[in-house]
Amino acid sequence: MGKGFTTNFYDQFEKLNIKLDKLIKENKQQSLTIYNLNLTVENLNKTIREKEDKINLLIEEIDRLKNKNNKNTSNSSKPSSTSMTSTKKKTGANLYNYRRKTDKKVGGQFGHKGNNLDKNRIEYMIQNKKMVVKEIFHKINGNSKEQDIVKYRLQLEFKPYVEKHIFKHVKTTDNKLPKEFYTDVTYGESIKALSIELGAYNVISYERLSDFFSVITNGIIDISNGTLVNFLYEFSNNSNKELAKLTSEILNSKNIYTDETGTKFNKKNMYIRNYSNDNTVIYKAHKNKGHEPIKEDNVLPLFCGGIMHDHDTTNYKYGTKNYECNIHLGRYLEELIQNINNISWPKQMKELLFRINNTRKMAICYNVKKFDKEKIKEYEGEFNNILFTAKIENNNITSTYYKDKANQLYRRLNKYKKNHLYFIKDFEVPFDNNLSERDLRMFKIKTKISGGFRSMEAAQHFVNALSIIKTSIKRNINPFDSIRAIFNHRDVFV
After folding, report:
1. How far apart are CA 92 and CA 137, in angstroms?
2. How far apart are CA 195 and CA 230, in angstroms?
């Protein structure tokens, strides 16, 4: 080979190296571009995942807000007053609370039972000296030999009087001046009892109550707000003996109802708990919920019967049995019925429970005490079959929010199945906890009117007074007579 060939070879080699360097450089640039593109794709995928997560969260929030907006008395614990669907308009004196105007005349309606004054009843009262009679004679045109026409008019007379107590000094007695007469002028039990009845049970404010006494006595009785508060405190302290009796009767019950409601004291949260049966109720006031207040009440820790409540798992530490309120359960089932279209088990479960209860009511009318074993087994089988359906159907729910709700209710029914069905094994077991709600309604009213209590001490005295009054009403005892008896240190509940 000649020198020209070698030179040409090196030239070609050099050109190839240059071309290779160029290709390597282009390859690096392409690799960098691919890397950047992969990084961009990865970032975009991450953004997409984040957006999808956010979309799912927003869908879940939409479901939650729709569910919240759709809550009413049938599918939640909201009071009936919140279920008005029409816009409230200004109305006249006889059109209120969303009543609609009709063509009917104001007053009593044809076919309705009247509440007219009964002459026979008045004469019965007079004969049994339950009413004072003041005879007033009139002259009307007619034959003097005709029989007199007798008519009655009911009246009230507010006539304050003063008891003048004179204490004579004698050596033959060891009696001392009673403590209630340490001051020269005091109020009697009739005034005190009326203030408790109107203030505690009818929730009249102290200012209006003071004004009431002044008006009906033409300014003779002018009671300060502080004195009215003292009446409540005195009544509460005098009630300790009767409250102990009521507590003993609750503890000796086969079944009791209990629940809590929230209110305020001095703008802070507090809670009222009831312990009730058909004839008795006692109330307790506390700053907090939980085991400590229950232990302080010392009712449930000593109780050996069945406890009806609204799925308050705190109560499961007490009593020998715990019953679940099926009315509350029905509302939770109704919530699923109204919001989830592709499942059938909530409707089946609600229909089953209420069908059993209606059958039970009919059986009670015929003095049946409980279902036979075969019937109980049949009902339990239906209950279990619906739970089996629930487990399958819940997997088909697309909404995460409602799927969680449905699964939560399914797990509750599965775990507390026995507690929801106690009422089919013993007809003395209640179907629901509505009695507690009725007993606690007064505190809802007080909270709406006055906002709550000024102190925990005031709340404690109020609940003591209301325990006496509500128990008297349950037992068909005149609460005014009960209050007077306690002020006079007499027994009320035998």
Report:
1. 42
2. 11
Closest CA to 383 of 412, 359, 414, 425: 414
Count other Cβ atoms within 10 Å, centred on residue 65. 11
- pLDDT value at residue 77: 64
| 3-state SS record for the chain | CCHHHHHHHHHHHHHHHHHHHHHHHHHHHHHHHHHHHHHHHHHHHHHHHHHHHHHHHHHHHHHHHHHHHCCCCCCCCCCHHHCCCCCCCCCCCCCCCCCCCCCCCCCCCCCCCCCCCCHHHHHHHHHCCCCCCCCCCCCCCCCCCCCCCCCCCCCCCCCCCCCCCCCCCCCCCCCCCCHHHCCCCCCCHHHHHHHHHHHHHCCCCHHHHHHHHHHHCCCCCCCCHHHHHHHHHHHHHHCHHHHHHHHHHHHCCCEEEEEEEEEEECCEEEEEEEEECCCCEEEEEECCCCHHHHHHHCCHHHCCCEEEECCCHHHHHCCCEEEECHHHHHHHHHHHHHHCCCCCHHHHHHHHHHHHHHHHHHHHHCCCCCCCHHHHHHHHHHHHHHHHHHHHHHHHCCCHHHHHHHHHHHHHHHHCHHHHCHHHHCCCCCCCCHHHHHHHHHHHHHHHHHCCECCHHHHHHHHHHHHHHHHHHHCCCCHHHHHHHHHCCCCCCC
Low-confidence stretches of the chain (pLDDT < 70) are 1-7, 70-102, 106-116
Question: Which two tokens mark 289?
Answer: 């919920």
Structure tokens given for 458: 């005031």
For residue 1, give every residue at least 6 positions away whose Cβ sits within 8 Å of its Cβ, in sequence order, or none: none
Contact 131, 125 (CB under 8 A): yes
What is the structure's pLDDT at 102? 67
Kindly give the pairing relationship between strand 268-276 and strand 255-265: antiparallel
Q: Give me Rg for the CA atoms of the chain.
A: 38
Q: φ and ψ at 284, to 5 degrees? A: -135, 140
pLDDT of amino acid 319 = 96
d(CA 195, CA 156): 18
pLDDT digits (tens, 9 = 90+) for 155-194: 888 889 999 999 999 999 999 998 888 889 999 999 999 9
Report how far residue 253's alpha carbon sits from residue 133's, in angstroms, rounded to the nearest whole number: 46
Check: CB of residue 322 under 8 Å from CB of residue 419: yes
- Classify each residue of 149-183 as buried b or exposed e, where b means 16 or more C-beta atoms within 10 Å of its C-beta: eeeeeeeeeeeeeeeeeeeeeeeeeeeeeeeeeee
Cα(412)–Cα(404) distance, integer angstroms: 12
Closest to 196 measured CA to CA, from 158, 238, 159: 238
Residue type, 322: N
What is residue 85's predicted lDDT score, i.e. its pLDDT?
53
Q: What local confidence, expressed as pLDDT, does residue 118 receive?
A: 84
